[in-house]
Amino acid sequence: MNALLEDLLNKHLAGSDLPLDPGLLNELNALLDAATSVKPGPSEQAEGPRTLDELYHTLWEALNILGDEASPVAGNGDIQGAILDAADKLNKACRNIVLSEQKTLRETVHLKTIQSVAKAGSWDVPATRDLSDVQNYWSDELFHLLGIDPATTKITYEQYIELVHPDDREFMKEEVNKAYMETGRYDVEYRIMRAGDANQQRIVREIAEVVKDKLTGEPVSLIGVTIDITDIKLAERAIVDANIELRTLFNTMNEVFFSVDLEHNNLLQISPACTRVYGYGPEEFAKDPFLWFSLVVDEDKKAAHESNVRLSMGEITQVEYRIRHKDGRIRWLLIRMWPTLNVSGKLIRIDGIASDVTERKEAESALANSELKLRTLLENSNDAIVIINKDLEYTFATESIGRIIGYAMEEFVGTSVLNYIHPDDKGVISHSLFSLTNKPDAPLPFEVRFRAKDGSWVWLEGVATNHLGEAVIDGYIANFRDVTDEIRYRKELEDANDKLKRTNAELDRFVYSVSHDLRAPLGSILGLIDFTATETADDDLIQSLSMMKSSIEKLDVFILDILDYSRNARLEVKRTPVNFSALLTDIRNSLKFTSTGNSHVEIRINIEEDGAFCSDKSRILIILSNLIANSLRYYDPARPDPYVEVTVVAGADGALINVKDNGIGIHKDYHPYIFNMFYRVSEKSKGSGLGLYLVKETVEKLSGDIQFTSTPGVGTEFKIFLPNP
Ligand code: ADP
């Protein structure tokens, strides 16, 4: 090549392997050679450049305008002009080549960017039987997708197949074969395991085409694109899962979801819960667009209609109404609905949820009823309830306060408790507060005088409880009632009682002293009778004296009974250990000297005692001597073996006393009266009628119990239990 041209090309197109037209280069070469061989004559000097330097300069300028649109001045047939033309052609050729190179470069960049953005790699595999060592074309993005660095690793098709998930390999190979054999292309999805990271599985979609030789029709190569669709797949799966969840929710929720297309009057969907809530299935609702309204009870149809009117104005609505369930029962529903309006503001769709709120409604109405009941009760009760805060101000009072102390609730609430309490009872209040603070769980009864609106003092009796710890109450609750009358009666009763007790005690003392004083003259009379009887031999007189003596003895027994009664009533119970054996021996001995004791009746005594029993000896003496005396007195003369048997079992638990005789017995008609004061079964009875009365009174004084059985002709048995206190 001409040295000048080579030098210029090197300078301008250094490093470029532009495929310049060899014809053009030859032409230029020849021209330059010719030009440099011409000897310049002086005449031609002015016509144009002839020297090598001039030529070089001309060509330099021509090539310098590469890339510019301006065309060099057309040649005029001389060698300089020819060179300029050639340079112009060279310029254009270079320019086109550079532009197409730039375009290719841009497209390559585009392609790479697109592949990277779309996560799509492309590849080209020659159609050959032995794929083990074939150098395929894998785009950079495909390498990236496979987790392989293209700069360091080259992989073969077989190595690529190794990266395909084992479960997908066969299927993939089949698809490739099918493409070669019949279809010419395939479009599959499979999983690949990223190199060096077994856990990082990616899902790809691969679309490939078999390129065939135009002449032979034989497959030349397989060209394809492999797109990473993992994210799309995961998103799809998430959508599917969400859809399944939503569907499950839709099918299983207790609420009824529904959507209605109003343009076509078409029920788009209704959830299966409608069968439970309304008793009608989705198909029945779909068939009859007015079914829901026909189920609304007549009284609530207006509310249902109004909610539809609000919906048509674009408002989200919430309405409660009753429907008649298919089973005939009335159910309460809460319906929430969302409207969709079109551009001209027309309601075209409703979405809603209907919930069965019957239980809540029933609970609400039960609550309202019980509240009403409670309020009615409180307001009509004679009791008042107030709440008092920690500053002792009323924060709440029932209306009934008006009936009790005359204040209206409004004028009462907010005032202080201390404004109303009687000065003498203020101590009760501070004492109560002290107790309520120290024992907050113990209800505290109180009784105070309260100033009523009319200025009078009213006695209030009630109970206070501490609820300071409870946010809703935050105070003391006191409920009370007017007990002014009761207290007046009680006070009167207490006074009368005191008076009665005093009178009784006086009476007892009087009876005692009178009885006591009467016995002394009786003793003197008896002594005189005995003396007179010894002084006379007159039988009539002696008999009269004996009768007098017997009457006076009877009177004495009577007085003794009265004295016993009086003692029992008057004296405190004195408990000491009781020795029944000694007691009964005394009784037996003292009875011997009375007329009653002078009988043929055998006295049998059985005692079991351990000395642990304590009671009032003198009272037990009264009980036993009266019962034994009666058995002696009312013995059955017709019996050959009259007896009275006294059995005592006494110990720490108490004493069981049994007095049993085989005397004349008592007819059952008289049983209810025998313990009455002065009661005697017959006028012929020898006693005063006080004995059994005294026994019962005394047993009761000892907190014991007495029972008896008696049958005429069989006998009588008294059973007494005395506790050991
Ligand atoms: P009185 O002083 O008349 O004995 P009581 O109160 O002791 O009065 O007895 C009331 C009546 O009960 C007696 O009048 C008597 O008729 C009857 N009575 C009491 N004890 C016996 C008995 N053990 N056997 C039969 N009758 C009895």
Notes on the structure:
The chain is an alpha+beta fold and 725 residues long. The chain has six domains: 3-103, no CATH class; 119-235, 2-Layer Sandwich (Beta-Lactamase); 253-363, PAS domain (Beta-Lactamase), CATH 3.30.450; 381-482, PAS domain (Beta-Lactamase); 483-571, Orthogonal Bundle (Helix Hairpins), CATH 1.10.287; 572-723, 2-Layer Sandwich (Heat Shock Protein 90). It is 46% helix and 22% strand. A five-stranded antiparallel sheet has the order 2-1-5-4-3, with helices on both faces. It has a five-stranded antiparallel sheet with strand order 7-6-10-9-8, with helices on both faces. Helix 18 runs parallel beside helix 21, helix 19 packs across helix 20 and helix 20 (617-633) packs antiparallel against helix 21. It is rod-shaped and about 220 Å long. Residues 39-50 and 65-77 have low confidence and may be disordered. Residues 630-631, 634, 661, 663-666, 674, 679-681, 685, 687-693, 716 line the site of adenosine-5'-diphosphate.
